[in-house]
Amino acid sequence: MKLRKEHIHKIAPYLWEIPKSFAPNKMRVPARILASEELLDAIMEDRSLTQLINVASLPGIQMASLVMPDVHEGYGFPIGGVAATLYPTGAISPGGIGYDINCGVRLLITQQELEEVRPYLEDLSKELYRQIPSGMGKGGNIKLSFNELDTVLEQGAEWAVNNGYGVAEDLEFIESKGKLEAADTTLVSEMAKKRGLDQLGTIGSGNHFVEVDYVEEIIDEGIASTLDLYKGQIVILIHTGSRGLGHQVATDYIRKFIGSMHQYEFQLPDRELACAPFNSEDGQAYFKAMCAAANYAWCNREVISHEVRAAWKNIFGTEVPPLQLLYDVAHNIAKVETHKVSGKEVTVIVHRKGATRAFGPGSPELPDKYKTIGQPVIIPGSMGTCSYVLVGSRISSEVTFGSCCHGAGRRLSRTAAKKQVNAPVLKQKLKEKGIYVEAGSFKGIAEEAPIAYKDVNLVVETISDSGIAKKVAKLRPLVVIKG
Amino acid sequence: MKIQYVPHTADIRMKIEGATLQDLFKAGLKGMGEILKTGLCERNTVFNIRREIRISGADYTCLLIDFLSEVLSLTYTEKSIFCEVTFKEFEAYEITAEIKGVKIESFEEEIKAVTYHEAQVEKVKSRVWKTNIVFDI
C-alpha cells in the first residue's frame, strides 16, 4: 500500500505515528516521526518513511521505529533514525549504525573573540586546510603499524593522548570517554585494518568538515555559562568518523549477516537490514568489531583536534589560551542503554543512524561538570547557515530512547545541488559574507551548498519545542574546510 | 552497456544494464570508477595495475555487490581505480576475475560502501540484464 498522509496520525505535538495496522504482516511496532507538520510534508517527498516502516520489522524492536526531523532517505535504514531492540535477544543490525561507524561531531572552544580573529580568517582557513589532510589519496600524516593500529582500536581517543596527539583533559568530555571497552581487534578484518593504517587525522569527503564558527547568540545564559560559552566567542566544529576502517567493518559484517540470517529465521524487507540476535556469536562479533571502529573514530577526531591546535598556534602564536573540548558525540552507533518503555525501565540495544545521543540531567554517563544541565548536543547546519548547541532533556529517554537530530538533513540530491549551484560563485559569495571555504574540489562545495539542506532553524525548533533537547547557543560559520 | 545516475537524497543511485551478466558486472565496475574520478575509465589510459579476485555469493545480486565491494576495498588499499575486468571463471554463484586499473594521486569522491539496497540483478528481456545500485557517499 502506498503511504499517504491520512495514514499518519498525530499522537502528540510534533509526534506522528504510522500504526502497525498499516502493514500488519511486516511491522512489529508502529513507526514514529518527530516533526512539525511543515517538516513532515518535506519528509514525505523521498522514501524515508517507507524505510522507517521497514525498520519497524526488526526482530525484538521496542516501542516504535523512530525518525528525527532531519531525516532523509538512506539505504535500508533512513538517515536520522533510531531503533531500539530488546537486550540481549533482540537484533543488532550493522545497517542501523551505517557504514561510517561513529561518525560524529565535536566542538572545541577558544577564549578568543570574533573581532580578534577576523583579520586572520583567510590565513587561518589556508593553514587549517594545510594541517588537516582529507585522506582522499595519500592518506594522513600518521602511518601506523598493525600493532599500533590494534592499540588505537582498543584505546580510542586515549591512544592519541598517550602518543602526543591529544590532550588528557579532553577524554572526560567525549561520549563514553572516547573508548568502548568491548572492542575486540581480532574481530576486525585484515582489509579493514589495512585501510586504517594511514587515515588517522583525516576528515574524508562528503558532508565531513572542520568549521570555525563564532557564537552569534546565547539562548540560555545559565547553561551556556556552565558550558563556558559566551557571545562573540570563537569555536571549532569537527565532523568526521571512522574512515575506511569503519566502512570496511560494516561491509564485512553486512555481507556476513546476509549469509547467516537464515539460521535465525529472520525475514526482512531489505538486505541492508540484515541482522543477528545481539547475544548470538554473529551479533557479538559485529558489536565488538563496531566498538573497535568507534574507538578509531574517537581517536581520529582527537588527532584532528591536535591538527587544529597546531594550525591555531601557527596563526595566533603560543600565548593564546589552549583550545578546550566542549563535547564529542557520536551519531552513528549502537549502545546498550536503559530507557523507559511504557513506563517501565527496559534495557535495549539503541541503534542511532544519523541521530545524536541526548541524555538529560543526572545521567551517570555525563561528566561531573555537565551533570546538572544535561548532555551537550551539537547540531551542525550547512556551510553558510548556522549550527546549534543544545542540551538533552530527561523526556528524551521516554520519547526517543535518549536521542535527537544530528544536523539539518539533506533535501536535494547531489546531482540536483550540482545543477543548481555554481560552486566558484558560491565560494565568492560566501567570502563576501565573511565565510572562507577551502575544499578539495568545486564539486564538493556544490554538493554541500546550503540549498542542498533543510532549514536547520526549523529542525532545531522542532527538537526544542518537543522538549527532547533545549537550545543553548547559535553558531555562525567563518571558515569551512572540506575534503 | 548502459550506465545512468539517478537522483538520491544523499547518496548515488546508479542504474546499469548489460547484454549479458558479465556485461552487467563490467558496467558496474566502470560506473563505480566514474564516480571515483570522472572520465578516468573513458580515457586512453594504460591500466597497468592487475589484481585477481575470487568472490562467491548467495545469488547474482550478492555476487555483483560483493564483487564491487571487494574492488572498492582494493581501490583504497592500492590507491588505484579499476576500470576493466576479465572473467576467468563466471559461474552461479562464484567468479574469479582479473581487474585492471591505474594508480591515482587522489579520488574526486569517496565511496563509503556499495550497498545491497535496491539491488536486484534480473534479466528483463533477451540480452538485457539490469539492476540499481546505491552507493553510500
Compact summary:
Chain A has helices spanning 37-43, 48-55, 114-117, 121-131, 146-155, 157-162, 190-196, 221-226, 243-260, 281-316, 395-399, 414-420, 423-432, 442-447, 456-466, and strands at 9-12, 15-18, 31-34, 65-75, 77-86, 91-92, 104-113, 209-218, 233-240, 276-277, 324-330, 332-341, 344-353, 356-357, 376-379, 387-392, 403-404, 436-438, 469-482. Chain A is α+β, with helices and mostly antiparallel strands and 483 residues long. Chain B is α+β, with helices and mostly antiparallel strands.
Strand content of chain A: 25-35%
Q: Mean pLDDT of chain A, as a whole number? A: 96
- The low-confidence parts of chain A are none
CATH superfamily of chain B: Archease domain
Distance between the termini of chain A: 42 Å
Structural class of chain B: alpha+beta
Oligomer: heterodimer
Name the CATH superfamily classification of chain A: tRNA-splicing ligase RtcB
Whole-number total of structural domains of chain A: 1
CATH class of chain B: Alpha Beta
Q: Give helix and strand order of chain B, one letter per element, not per position.
A: EEHEHEEEEE
Q: What is the name of the CATH topology of chain B? A: Archease, Possible Chaperone, Chain: A, domain 1
Low-confidence stretches of chain B: none
The structural domain count of chain B equals 1
Query: What's the total count of β strands of chain A?
Result: 19
Helix proportion range of chain A: 25-40%
Q: What's the CATH architecture of chain B?
A: 3-Layer(bab) Sandwich
